[in-house]
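Before going further, it is useful to explain how the protein records used in this thesis are read. An example of such a record is reproduced below.

***
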Amino acid sequence: EISKEYLMGGFPLGVSTLGAVAVRWLNGRTLGLGDEYLNGFLPNVARVGRESVVQAFDEAFSLDRMVVVIAGDAKRIEASLREK
């Protein structure tokens, strides 16, 4: 719910200038989201429920194939990882 409120609350500011509207429209067009992308954004976000988000996540991400990558000084990182 917090993410939904964030998206819906920030939308008016995100389309508050002609340039911002043009960028959003172009992004929607480029991603093939249809001509009604901007008009339908708020109602579409409002319709999304927790179950559909979890289902989409499960379909898009395979946690059993997830790889964690850590970058930095290997000796310092390795020592801190071994402590845990």
